[in-house]
Amino acid sequence: MPKKKPVKHSGDDDIAAPVSSQTGSSIDTLWWWLTHKGTTTSFLCISLFALLIRSAVSMYPYSGAGTPPKFGDFEAQRHWMEITTNLPVIDWYRNGTNNDLTYWGLDYPPLTAYQSYIHGVLLKIFNPESVALLSSRGHESYLGKLLMRWTVLSSDALIFFPAALFFVLVYHRNRTRSSKSEVAWHIAMILLNPCLILIDHGHFQYNCISLRLTLGAIAAVLCGSEVLTFGLFSLALSHKQMSAYFAPAFFSHLLGKCLRRRNPILAVVKLGIAVIATFVIVWWPYLHSLDDFLMVLSRLAPFERGIYEDYVANFWCTTSILIKWKKLFTTQSLKSISLAATILASLPSMVQQILSPSNEGFLYGLLNSSMAFYLFSFQVHEKSILMPFLSATLLALKLPDHFIHLTYYALFSMFPLLCRDKLLIPYLTLSFLFTIIYHSPGNQPVQKTKASIFSFKNFPGYVFLLRTHFFISIVLHVLYLTIQPPQKYPFLLEALIMILCFSYFVLFGFYTNYTQWTLSRHFRSSGKEKKHI
Amino acid sequence: MGFVNQRSLMLSVYIGAEMDHREENKDRRLLLWFFAVATAVKLLLIPSYRSTDFEVHRNWLAITHSLPLTRWYFDETSQWTLDYPPFFAYFERFLSVFARVVDPRIVNLQSGIDYGAESVVYFQRISVIVSDLCLLYGVYRLTRKLEPMKRNLICALVIWSPGLLIVDHIHFQYNGFLLGWLLLSISFLQEGRDLLGGFLFAVILCFKHLFAVAAPVYFVYLLRHYCWSGFVTGFRRLVTIGAVVVAVFVAAYGPFIYHGQIQQVISRMFPFGRGLCHAYWAPNFWVFYIILDKGLAFSLRKLGFDIRIPSASFTGGLVGNSSPFAVLPQITPLTTFALVLLAISPCLVKAWKKPHPGLVARWIAYAYTCGFLFGWHVHEKASLHFTIPLAIVAVQSVEDAKHYFLVSIVSCYSLFPLLYEPQEYPIKVLLLLLHSMVMWLGFTAQYAEKKARKKESGEIKSKFKIGYFEKSYLMGLFIVEMVSQFLHPHFLGDKYPFIPLMLISTYCTVGIMYSWIWQLRRILT
Questions:
Q1: pTM of the shown model
Q2: Three-state SS string across B288-336, please?
Q3: Given an 8 Å threshold on Cβ–Cβ distance, is A26 in contact with B45?
Q4: Could you list the residue ranges that cross the membrane (chain B) (predicted)?
């Protein structure tokens, strides 16, 4: 039997002392801990923390808690579970005695309905009264809230996290130079994204599912598997029509790639089959008659609600202070105007991708097209900022400075909404947490971007502008919380917040579009240089 | 020439100092970073479940604010009477000044009862978060001389301790604040500044008397290490430290002695009528004792002996003269006291023989382990008293790390029944998992093989490996959790509600007993 080593008591044990002196700076111990076992382990550790944060946030109130008769998004989701578990599939989108469409009628595509059905079945097992037909309207209880929260938590853990892991593994496989600590930092940025946490686990929605499907599709693009991409993206589209924000980027990138194939037609046909097959499977119950199909479609496009609602920091809402769009044009013409504007705004990045598709350009394209949709499309919610924000998160290592600013303003644009939901403490805490993790010691994410030839920072007054912006936003935060706006303009502060965020988003949009174009020029020039050599 | 040499030497010294300074700044930044992350989590936990301790502390705010000092320990308006030593009462008096500004109803004796508005919740929760600065300073002071790797590990283990989060920031207490004082005291002892260390310990005792379990260790250590140096100096030092301790106690208890209330204060602080075990069955030695008694009574009854079923319960206190035990002899507070002292004694002998400052933390942790195992009416929260000091010991060798890995998981798990509401279920599980993960990553990195370190990629070997026995024991925790959370409610429903609690505490007792024996062996060898 081996004899046990004599035990030492004093502080300076010989085991660790020489080892740690080799590491040099103590500061990277943090990252050394996290990453020395490989990406998957550090991902697991960070995701545990992210789940902890999510479950802590979920203890806070949800949107519309205790505010009859309409309540909020929480009630909408619960109502859908009630409808889907109690009515046959074909009646989900149809107005009837048991399904009053004016009371939170289902207005998302079928995949959302299926997801509601699955969650509804779970709720029915543990708390049947919370999804009972008609009698459960406005149901609010400890157990009901908890179960609903857990459905979001589990969909996040089971769906968003694996997709994030998939993306990180694929993305960093291509980037040989990225150090381990950068990978860990990037994972933390994706998983601790305050906007997504606040909306899904505070306000209450299931954005994690459609965003995950999109993320999976993006990872599949980086993997080079086009069929998988289109399958996943079609699923994302059938979960939330808002996923269409990303469509131009996917379309242009894959078109650009297909055109470079030897057999472009065959490639396109293959993709077309993938898309059609996915759609047919998801939409099957509604494909038996044209009426049913149109009924669902009409539910998905609520044009009667006007071009904008509330105070969202997009073009239409911001300019409506000066130009009364709703009075000047009919809804019909506004529809075409907004469509044209959106296409025009996303055109540059699409053209770039068709001309020279590249992985990095694709990520920028996602960002640009979703930003274009956010700024110019019809009926945008505050929450839709999640789409451009997701794609910015993926590029966090490329534009770290802009990323933290974007996070700040994206959060700020949702500030009035979150205040209404009584989520002030999580809002402040998560912004704080995100900032300290962004600036976590020992990790300098500030990396020279490839487009460093031109930088906004070189513009005279840019830094000054940014600082003024920031200062005003702080003042607005304080004002919003402390003072009552004048009687004449009850939404004065909301409007100011909107203008501020809008101006930042526009600036950001310009910057990323420009970067995307310089990217291709850079690539092309470097390619030429290689040929010369 | 010489001049130039001197200058360059000076310059290099200067640069070296500058470097050290910068290093230290960086470390401080990292420590603050740990604390900031923890604070964010604590803030998010504000709306979570809070136990009656929340109302207890609110009531103390009201008592100390609206009553004169002479009536603090007599007030019975609420059932949650003041039963902590005077310094804690002064601390509550201090907090109540701010509480009044926030919302006057908090400090109202009558209308404040069971007050649950946002103002009081936020005020009290944030007061705990702010008082944790004490813990931060304690950790900082304790670890500032250590090498970076160890220091960071200790900081992560203490500041991110799941036990502290569960007890202080969900259940509601001020343990972080008090343990901060303890760490501060240990840091002075380790530096050889015994007088300050002793002084701080006296202060802690006047905050919370449950810390007194380590008093014998302090007494012996200070007597030997501080006072045992020649007759004259020794005597002078003995008088000094005696005077310091007496002064602290006078500052605390003086006013009450002056008013002739010391009897009342003591009787409030030591409610021996509360029974041997706390309602939640802390995982200590007495769990075995009770189970043995039950088993014996059952088997003897089967054999035909006439065993009466005891009328008193273990948790309800001693009712009259009847014993809660059917067969085994009754346990009195005196028995437990003697047993604790007996258990500590090997460590005392060791401390007397070789009073080494580097070992103080180990001895103190051991003393608290003994107090936890054999004490009277022990709360499971008391396990924090030894898990936090053990964190300091854990970085000293691989064996210590392995032991700490086990004991901190067990002690954290034993806190689970405190948060019995389903809302906190994912939180407590995630806290434990995250803690285990951080420990595992931290220890494997700390004890990584020298050569492997340099390699950029590939499998890194570490001396830190969890043994077969420990692994299966920890797996058992998982099974216990499954049984008590899912199988028991599913098959037995509401019948025998005490079974899950008993199962958990019995199983955790095995772990804690193991830890006790391990620590004892470690101290003796």
A1: 0.89
A2: HHHHHHHHHHHHHHHCCCCCCCCCCCCCCCCCCCCCCCCCCCCCCHHHH
A3: no
A4: 30-49, 122-140, 152-172, 199-223, 235-258, 278-297, 334-352, 359-376, 426-448, 468-487, 499-518
